[in-house]
């Protein structure tokens, strides 16, 4: 059997064990909105997406707010029946995270991204990026 089977099982154990999951969540919550990390938290998933542990590759952890895109309902005079209070965004939360990382690191290309962890207010993603020059 390949070694990634064991790596993947170890990563899944993080989400089954409450203490390890809480540690990961606290680490993410206490950090800034966008942070470059030393290596991927989910190594097997990062390798599937094309990550290599060599110069030119970077992993960025990004926080995106949860919730729908809500607009206030007009409260004066006549209101149309199709006011349009709730909208579906064109991009998913994961795509929003990728675009924010690309904007912040303009010299790098996005290789891929994956979901990391969430709480009631935010979702965290890790975006794998590669330097264009290398």
Overview of this structure, please?
The chain has 134 residues and is of the alpha+beta class. It has one domain: 3-Layer(aba) Sandwich (Ribosomal protein L15e), CATH 3.40.1120.10. The chain has helices at residues 3-16, 18-30, 43-49, 93-104, and strands at residues 34-37, 57-65, 69-70, 86-87, 108-118, 122-131. It has a 4-stranded antiparallel beta sheet with strand order 1-2-6-5. Strands 3-4 form a two-stranded antiparallel sheet. The radius of gyration is 19 Å and the shape is globular.
Could you name the CATH homologous superfamily?
Answer: Ribosomal protein L15
CATH class: Alpha Beta
Categorize the overall geometry. Answer: globular
Instruction: Quote the distance from N terminus to C terminus.
Output: 33 Å
Number of strands: 6
Which regions contain 5 or more consecutive residues with pLDDT less than 50?
A: none
CATH architecture: 3-Layer(aba) Sandwich
| Total tally of structural domains | 1
Fill in the CATH topology: Ribosomal protein L15e
What is the CA-based Rg, rounded? 19 Å
Given the structure, what is the number of helices?
A: 4
Biggest sheet record? 4 strands, antiparallel
The percent range for strand residues is: 25-35%
Structural class, from helix and strand content? alpha+beta
Please write the string of helix (H) and strand (E) elements. Answer: HHEHEEEHEE
**Which strands sit side by side, in order, in the main sheet?**
1-2-6-5
């Amino acid at each position: 059997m390949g070694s990634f089977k064991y790596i993947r099982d170890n990563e899944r154990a993080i989400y089954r064990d409450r203490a390890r999951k809480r540690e990961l969540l606290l680490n993410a919550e206490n950090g800034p909105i966008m942070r470059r990390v030393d290596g991927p938290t989910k190594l097997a998933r990062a390798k599937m997406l094309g990550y290599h542990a060599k110069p030119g590759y970077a992993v960025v952890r990004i926080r995106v707010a949860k919730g729908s895109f809500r607009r206030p309902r007009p409260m004066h005079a006549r209101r149309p029946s199709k006011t349009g209070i709730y909208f579906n965004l064109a991009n998913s939360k994961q795509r929003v995270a990728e675009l924010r990382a690309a904007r912040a690191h303009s010299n790098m290309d996005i290789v891929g991204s994956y979901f990391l962890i969430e709480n009631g207010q935010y979702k965290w993603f890790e975006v794998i990026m590669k330097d264009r020059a290398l």
